[in-house]
Design brief:
By secondary structure, this protein is an alpha+beta fold. It has helices spanning 3-24, 29-32, 107-112, 129-134; strands at residues 48-54, 59-60, 65-72, 81-86, 92-93, 97-98, 120-127, 145-152, 165-171, 176-178. It folds into two domains: 3-27; 48-178, Transthyretin/hydroxyisourate hydrolase domain (Immunoglobulin-like, Sandwich). β1 (48-54) and β2 (59-60) form a beta hairpin. Keywords: Hydrolase, Purine metabolism.
Length: 182
């Protein structure tokens, strides 16, 4: 049997022993006090968010006006409840502002007030695409893009099987696509 083959298991065992030593060694005191990165809390984002990417330029769609409307809910008022926002520099909306003074509840409060954990509400998020592209000197086929979807639950992160509702949109002047994000 040749020498290289006999020493290969020895080298493997040596490396394994070295890895075990490194894993068993105590961490330096500075490393043990490093705070862990926490996921965003409900205070940091609403239970419904969106993200828009401009496929024409391959960049986030910053400063795009967006409207979120509650279309139906158990015992909903006769006029729709609407919220507005403008996408940030990363093309995201994390918090919604009520459109009128008549809307006294926030998105999390509306969902929290639902009667059961499996209650459903229908929502629409509308992106004001036409004027946004026009301001950039680009003609758009879409005056607006509206995505309608159903939210199930009361919006409490990690409670009753709740999952955050994120609506990403890939947007171009002649096309768009969307999907359920996370």
């Amino acid at each position: 049997m040749d020498t290289a083959r006999r020493s290969s298991p020895d080298r493997t065992n040596e490396r394994l022993a070295l890895y075990q030593q490194q894993l068993a060694a105590p961490l330096p005191s500075s490393a043990t006090h490093t705070p862990a990165r926490q996921p965003p809390t409900m205070a940091a984002r609403d239970p419904i968010t969106c993200h828009v990417l401009n496929t024409l330029t391959g960049t986030p769609a910053a400063n795009l006006p967006v409207t979120l409307t509650l279309l139906s809910a158990p015992a909903s008022p006769s006029s729709p409840v609407t919220f507005h926002a403008t996408t940030n520099g990363d093309g995201r909306v994390a918090k919604w502002t009520p459109t009128s003074a008549a809307t006294t509840l926030s998105v999390p409060e509306i969902l929290a007030a639902l009667p059961t954990g499996d209650s459903k509400t229908n929502w629409a998020v509308r992106f004001e695409v036409g004027p946004w592209y026009e301001a950039q000197g680009i003609e758009s086929f879409w005056p607006e893009v509206e995505v309608k979807f159903t939210v199930k639950g009361r919006g409490r992160e990690g409670v009753e099987g709740w999952r955050h509702y994120h609506v990403p949109v890939l947007l171009g002047p002649w096309n768009y696509s969307t999907y359920r994000g996370s």
